[in-house]
Amino acid sequence: MSCLTCRRPVVGIIGNAYALNDRYPVHAGGTMNSEAVADVAGCLPLIIPSDPRYVSVEELLALCDGFLLTGGRPNVHPSAYGEQETPAHGAFDRSRDAITLPLIRACVERGQPFFGICRGFQELNVAMGGSLHPEIRELPGRMNHRMPPEASLEEQFALRHPVRFTPGGVFHRLMGADEVMTNTLHGQGIARAGARIVVDGVAEDGTPEAIYVRDAPGFTLSVQWHPEWRAGEDPVSRPLFQAFGAACADWAAGQRARAMVAE
Asked: What does the alpha-carbon distance between residue 13 and residue 5 come to, in Å, rounded to a whole number?
């Protein structure tokens, strides 16, 4: 049996740029992302240095079977959706923007699967022409969706609010429930939904929390919360990663079939 037929599907985990000990620059991804991809999705996790100086979208599409668009502290730069930078927009990672936004559009067109989480959810909306609120807690009637900054990790990722899905929609069918409890660790949120973006789940204050791309040929489900936290134990997170893993396996199988025909 060749390595092509026996290997796990490869999921590129979009890394974030950090300064280790405030001095040493690194590209990193949370262990919980790798754990969810490996143990729940059944795929091979591969952390991607999201910087166009080191990788190209074309190389990533050829290397990986799917992509996990992770959360991260830096936000999408507002110039990507036609707005000016303000202090409320926070920190940015322009290099990540340069990789993920065209990568998302290419995946949508090709049918190559991706799963967006938090910032990844926001990236999907921006990539499809949407815009973001820089600080949703300042909007009338909205709750504070940010994590408690001084809390323990367990408290930060604790379930904090319900998300209600569209009856009969994609998320409703996947979850087998019209409402679930989620954690919440974000400051920004969707202002204007991008072209073909379907808002399929909202928080109790109306904040979009679950989206996908209408008529996309592949897996595009994305959520504003963090399902990677203890994904194997959580009844909401587990079906999301399992469905994503199945989509990546289908893509990998199709690629193997095409490779064998070419031989």
From this structure: 22
Q: pTM for this one?
A: 0.94
Is residue 226 annotated as part of the catalytic site, yes or no?
A: yes
Q: How confident is the model at residue 121 (pLDDT cuts 50, 70, 90)?
A: very high
Percentage of the chain modeled with pLDDT above 90 = 79
Residue appearing with tokens 């919440």: 184
Is 118 tagged catalytic? Answer: yes
| Catalytic residue (one of 118, 123, 145, 209) | 118
**Is residue 233 annotated as part of the catalytic site, yes or no?**
no
Neighbours of 163 (CB within 10 A): 25
* Position 5 pLDDT exceeds 80: no
Q: Once rounded to an integer, what is the mean pLDDT over residues 34-43?
A: 98
Closest CA to 125 of 215, 14, 222: 222
Which residue among the candidates 145, 172, 186, 226 is catalytic per the annotation? 226
For the beta carbon of residue 246, count every other beta carbon within 10 angstroms.
Answer: 16
- Tokens found for residue 77: 């730069």
Helix (H), strand (E) at residue 181: strand 179-182
Give all domains of the chain, ordered by start, each with its CATH number.
3-262 (3.40.50.880)
